[in-house]
Fold:
Amino acid sequence: YSNVSRSWGSPDSIDSWIMDEDGTKISYATPMHEEIAAWYLDLLDNRVAPRAADYIEGSAGNLFTAGFNATHASTVGTATTFLDRIGDAFEMDSIPLPVGAEGRQGTCYSGNHYMVNSASEHLEEAYELLKYLTSIDAGIYMVLESKGQPNGHKAAWTDAAVNEVNRMFGVTDALITAGVEPYPMPANTRFTEANDIFQNEINLIWEGEEPWETHAPVIDEKVQGILDLGRPE
Structure:
């Protein structure tokens, strides 16, 4: 949701964010997010964007790869997967999410973090594995062989062979290099819990089961309940 919502407003405003810079407060029940919801609900009601009942095997992406949807918004890594899945069935191209009416770029960077557990019985082996997973070779392999997204190694994103598969890695590398605005995470590290609740509850609005006007405050209350918890033990 944030990738799209951050296209709203002016480039110097953070009104489109759903979480504050400290990662301690959610603000979804606001006039701007009401405007965004009205825009997206119109797309859903007019079948420009699909609802869950139209998905193939529970996935909107499967609608696109099967040729039933003209466009699909997702991550740059998903584009690689789709290109592999589509094959020669039809021609596919990609662009970054368009900027908003006031010129705000909604694209943001997110990625996975690797760690070594200090309680591991095989610390040395785990460290060696971690070094490989974050290497240039592994990043390139993730695209050429696994048909996904590189690790966080810049050289993998700009690699010529990688960009032959999916040119968007070079395009998005330029966006990241130019600077991507902060993407606050919950200060108590409970992202998964907060995100699961947010996604499940906002889907009730998208599916037409709950109106935005009454359910947006419910979303704020439920997610804030997670943000107010302490860090996991």
Summary: The chain is about 45% helix and 0% strand.
